[in-house]
Amino acid sequence: VPHGPVIACVALGSNLGDRHSHIDAGIRGLGAIPASALLAVSPVTETEPVGPVPQGPYLNAAAVVRTALPPREFLAALHAIERARGRERVLKERWGPRTLDLDLLLFGDEVIDEPAITVPHPRMHERRFVLEPLAAVAPDAVVPTLGRTVLELLAALPAAATGSGA
Ligand code: PH2
Ligand code: MG
Ligand code: MG
């Protein structure tokens, strides 16, 4: 079913190499996705690494993009930006350090649960390093699977919770 432009929310992360350069390239890459417009980028903040793999601290941010691409093509564009920063997508990398990670958090109000694409991102509501930057650019965005806004989910996080990995 063809549909009009949707608002997509993307999380950016980096904890390998020149982190600021990777995040900047991620932002420029988002601004260059065909049939899309970069609407907002959050401040970039340093966060403690979350998850089972010992690794260095991350820089995290979030962005809002309006796009006329279908969701799988939009996700493919995110992966191409990651690859351009030397990111290798291998199984052992789960939870591990990465040059540039672009996670698709929300794609309008679409709910897709397939091996290759899951939106909303199934763990976004547990992660302060996702919700805090996202609340800076899309506080009122609704996570359709939870029926809660980003701001509500951030407020509901336990004080000590920084989220869980991957
Ligand atoms: N990403 C991970 C694992 N752990 N920790 C922080 N602070 N920020 C991240 O972006 C992050 C993480 C896997 O993608
Ligand atoms: Mg990822
Ligand atoms: Mg990630």
Short description:
By secondary structure, the protein is an alpha+beta fold.
Molecular structure report:
The model has no long low-confidence stretch (mean pLDDT 92). Strands 1, 2, 3, 4 and 5 form a five-stranded antiparallel sheet that branches. Strands 6-7 form a two-stranded antiparallel ribbon. It is an alpha+beta fold. Helix 1 (19-31) packs antiparallel against helix 2. A hairpin with a 4-residue loop joins strand 8 (142-143) and strand 9 (148-149). The protein has helices at 19-31, 71-84, 128-137, 150-156, and strands spanning 6-14, 36-41, 45-47, 58-67, 101-107, 112-114, 117-119, 142-143, 148-149. The structure holds 2-amino-6-hydroxymethyl-7,8-dihydro-3H-pteridin-4-one (PH2) and magnesium ion (2 copies). The site of one magnesium ion (MG) has 4 residues, from strand 5.
How is the topology of this model organized?
Layout: E1 6-14, H1 19-31, E2 36-41, E3 45-47, E4 58-67, H2 71-84, E5 101-107, E6 112-114, E7 117-119, H3 128-137, E8 142-143, E9 148-149, H4 150-156
Antiparallel strand pairs: 1-4, 1-5, 2-4, 3-4, 6-7, 8-9
Helix pairs in contact: 1-2, 3-4
The structure holds 2-amino-6-hydroxymethyl-7,8-dihydro-3H-pteridin-4-one (PH2) and magnesium ion (2 copies).
Please describe the structure with a list of short key phrases separated by commas or semicolons:
166 residues; five-stranded antiparallel β-sheet; globular; 4 helices; alpha+beta; binds 2-amino-6-hydroxymethyl-7,8-dihydro-3H-pteridin-4-one; 9 strands; two-stranded antiparallel sheet; binds magnesium ion
